[in-house]
């Protein structure tokens, strides 16, 4: 199976050459399509000090279809839906802009980057995005509070 | 019920020799000046008492006769019915059609007559009013069902009684009938029969009233309008379909964006895409390189694989001159990747760049001679008939050093690659199944791999409608974007705009229903300020779940009015 081959390869590549601030591994040894990802909040961001766990789900059609990223840790972020799914909105993860040449490590890098700097143009939570744009102080406060509350 | 309009009594001559074929009573009438004829057509002189015939327009024909009654029956009134009146026995044949004739005396007697007539070959029954009780004639079977098939008429007594008397004059043979002497003198055979022949014409009493006629006209006009508009719509739809087909053929339409389900590349097209041995961009351009490598103890395959990364950039030998290109592997690799990420719109974007690169290095990327000499049968795919060309053109594409699908590096002159029309290359085993079953777009640049002019779908009216609507919505969103960019900030737009959006949404559902596709995931149009409507790609996430049934009337409506939605 081509997908499994590629995913295994990517997993090996990732463990050899990990992205800073990101650790990832298979959720269970038997299923390469489900990864557990742990993001550590970058210094200088309201998320610093927080540890965020995510589920990375790869479709069986991978790499033709994009993986999905879901935060299992609650996070106050314009690009993460504020529901029990916690789905992360990444531009490259949309099926129309997804490219098979995109690697999981790049996706995770991007995700880590979003913690440092949210992308308001691509926001799922428009109210948070507005807050981020218009009153960054209150946004930072809430984000910090949530990080303390949920991501310790 | 059809009423009588006309009673015609005349005398016909039935030859004594006529048998069998005479049943249709096609006999000549007796010379009118020597006999009698009676026409009753004034509506006040007769009445239709009963008729099963509903259509009207029929005629009932037969020889006039008086049905036999039991001799002891008191109804056999010889004051009214003369003894020598035409009875059944006086008729030449048994199988002739008859019209029964009797006075309307009492209800009982009328019934006796009718039952008697039923045994005969009767086409109709005519009663006439007896002068004595002329004013209060009674319906012969008043209040009862008529068990008879023949129609029953009533004739005014002032006409009926003389006719009865006339009937008695035409019961014997030719010499004894009225004016018999003159008739035989006139040459009529004495053995022939002269009998009274009756023709009753009817018309429908239920002609179409004015209201019905009016309604009919209204319905006809409506039907005409429906038909005309249907025809017009069909014409328009035909025109639209044709123009859409033309635009698809010209490659002006983004088929995947239409959301018409999965569009894949047929195998026969796939087989036409060039497949050739991968040639690293600058490495192994010329045969000398090969020879050189061959001379210097060809390393085993495993070793070569390790070394392969050096081959592309390390040394290029052209006519014995070797030039070392300073680019390192890692640089090259990342460069290639970047370029892939840039999502080049078309090969022409990168072609000048490539040319520049090659000229700056002073090395022609490829020359026909070198290409020819380079082509080794080992790496050529047997499926492509023009592999030389393919090999030669490959480097003008993108700097792809690895297959974007499996991420494996291509091995110089070893890996067979498939080149799509957009010049991106892949392992055939990676890209072929995808194009055959998932999509017709290149996974890197999303450019269609289908040949120009090829229309891969059946163009239905729904697709045509959808395309038109999508186009208008896109134009509109462009306008809005332009307007807001100008700072005028026209806002959300008018009613028409909203209506179009709603229609688009509904159409989407409809189309899905028709295609039996149910979208697996969430997502819709115009997701959060993406400007345009990214309808297309979502459809690739559809999967067939069940056939959504459209009501039949809607199908029919669609067929009649293809333009409506």
From TrEMBL, chain A:
Its EC number is 2.3.2.23. Gene3D superfamilies: Ubiquitin Conjugating Enzyme. SMART domains: UBCc. It comes from the Eukaryota. Keywords: ATP-binding, Nucleotide-binding, Transferase, Ubl conjugation pathway. InterPro entries: Ub_conjugating_enzyme (IPR050113), UBC (IPR000608), UBQ-conjugating_enzyme/RWD (IPR016135). GO terms for molecular function: ATP binding; ubiquitin conjugating enzyme activity. PROSITE patterns: UBC_2. Pfam families: UQ_con. It is an enzyme of class 2 (transferase). Residues 2-152 form the UBC core domain. PANTHER family: UBIQUITIN-CONJUGATING ENZYME E2 (PTHR24067). This is E2 ubiquitin-conjugating enzyme.
UniProtKB/TrEMBL annotation, chain B:
Residues 378-397 have a biased composition (Polar residues). Residues 403-446 form the RING-type domain. InterPro entries: E3_ubiquitin-ligase_domain (IPR051826), Znf_RING (IPR001841), Znf_RING/FYVE/PHD (IPR013083). The chain crosses the membrane at residues 211-236. Keywords: Membrane, Metal-binding, Transmembrane, Transmembrane helix, Zinc, Zinc-finger. It comes from Arthrobotrys musiformis. CDD domains: RING-H2_PA-TM-RING. This is Nucleolar protein 58. Residues 291-310, 330-346 have a biased composition (Basic and acidic residues). It holds the Pfam family zf-RING_2. Residues 364-377 have a biased composition (Low complexity). GO terms for cellular component: cytoplasm. GO terms for biological process: ubiquitin-dependent protein catabolic process.
